[in-house]
Amino acid sequence: MQERYVPTMSENPPDRATLEREIRARQDSLAATVDELAGRVAPKALAQSGLDSAKDAGARLVLDEDGALRFGRIGAVVGGIVGLVGLSVLARKKD
User: Fold this and answer.
1) What is the chain's percent helix, strand, coil content, to nearest 5?
2) Which DSSP letter does residue 63 get?
């Protein structure tokens, strides 16, 4: 927070027009900051940010730096899913 302007004895205080311009400039700056913050925390913006982050994480999981598929990782994920489905089927048959 900025300090309040206090003229010294050697200075002439700013005129009314100068003060009004400074106040208007600060109000505009504050309004822009509030608008930016409101945009950042808007539910739509947060949801889009989360979606973009999930897409990036998923892409990094299955694609290498050149954009080629990582078949080893894909196979491991598919194998894990098949294993979990198989275990759940076996568990239901025991009941």
Assistant:
1) 75, 0, 25
2) B
Q: Are 63 and 70 in contact (CB under 8 A)?
A: yes
Long-range contacts of 90-94 (CB under 8 A, 24+ apart): none
d(CA 55, CA 70): 16
- Judge if pTM exceeds 0.85: no
Strand partners, 63: 69
Residues 6+ apart with CB under 8 A from 61: 70, 73, 77
69-95 per-position pLDDT tens digit:
888 888 988 999 999 999 999 888 876
3-class state of residue 4 by DSSP: coil
